[in-house]
């Protein structure tokens, strides 16, 4: 006897709730570390990481909304929401580059700042992978397994390019609306003259490969856990 749609949805909802609880606990840790640093030092050195974490939550929120939406609604909003997701997706792995801000500072143990930034970087990476897992499942359902991994690869490479634009050229997701001409010019310049901008492609390829290998590792660990159960 076939199971009802509601019955089939229960395990998915339970897994989603568990994921949200774990990610939420990890985010709370980062917020607490930042708050304590401000409280004891009266300095706002790493408060900007709160904003970065909020931006990293946006693609996860969008992919969650798509994953839990009903079939017809999902089909109608998949493309526009997917494009917005892709626009904001680089904000999640971008937090890894905030390790650039790590340096010895008077009044704060070096190990504390290291733990603080690493916790934020970890959250950004896990939010990115959780969100990408959602989107890959949606693509696989419509276009197949091979297309879904092509989507993953392209998304991570584009994300790495976005990280470069944000870290080195200081663009953000809103510049596509507020400063589109400058953004478009800088992108086209690097596409037409790749050898004149080796750092662009070095960051894009190396960061992209790193993110892809990490994502594959996480997915394989999940498959191993499923096999044991």
Automatic annotation (TrEMBL):
Family matches, as InterPro entries: DUF1361
Top-level taxon: Bacteria
Pfam families assigned to the protein according to its UniProt record, in alphabetical order: DUF1361
Transmembrane parts of this sequence: 20-40, 46-65, 77-96, 108-131, 143-165, 199-221
Keywords, in A-Z order: Membrane, Transmembrane, Transmembrane helix
Protein name from the UniProt record: DUF1361 domain-containing protein
Organism: Hymenobacter telluris
Lineage, opening ranks: Bacteria, Pseudomonadati, Bacteroidota, Cytophagia, Cytophagales
């Amino acid at each position: 006897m076939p199971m009802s749609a509601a019955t089939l949805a229960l395990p998915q909802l339970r897994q989603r709730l568990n994921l949200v609880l774990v990610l939420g606990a990890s985010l709370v840790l980062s917020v607490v570390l930042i708050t304590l640093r401000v409280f004891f030092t009266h300095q706002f050195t790493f408060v900007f990481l709160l904003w970065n974490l909020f931006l990293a939550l946006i693609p996860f929120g969008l992919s969650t909304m798509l994953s839990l939406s009903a079939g017809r609604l999902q089909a109608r909003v998949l493309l526009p929401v997917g494009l917005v997701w892709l626009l904001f997706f680089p904000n999640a792995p971008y937090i890894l580059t905030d390790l650039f801000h790590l340096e010895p500072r008077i009044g704060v143990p070096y190990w504390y700042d290291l733990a603080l930034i690493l916790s934020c970087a970890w959250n950004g990476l896990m939010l990115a992978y959780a969100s990408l897992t959602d989107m890959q499942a949606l693509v696989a359902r419509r276009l197949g397994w091979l297309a879904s991994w092509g989507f993953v690869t392209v998304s991570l490479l584009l994300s790495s390019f976005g990280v470069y634009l944000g870290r080195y050229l200081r663009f953000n997701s809103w510049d596509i609306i507020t400063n589109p001409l400058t953004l478009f010019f800088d992108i086209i310049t690097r596409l037409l003259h790749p050898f004149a901008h080796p750092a662009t492609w070095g960051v894009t390829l190396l960061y992209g490969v790193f993110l892809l290998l990490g994502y594959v590792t996480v997915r394989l660990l999940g498959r191993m856990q499923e096999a044991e159960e």
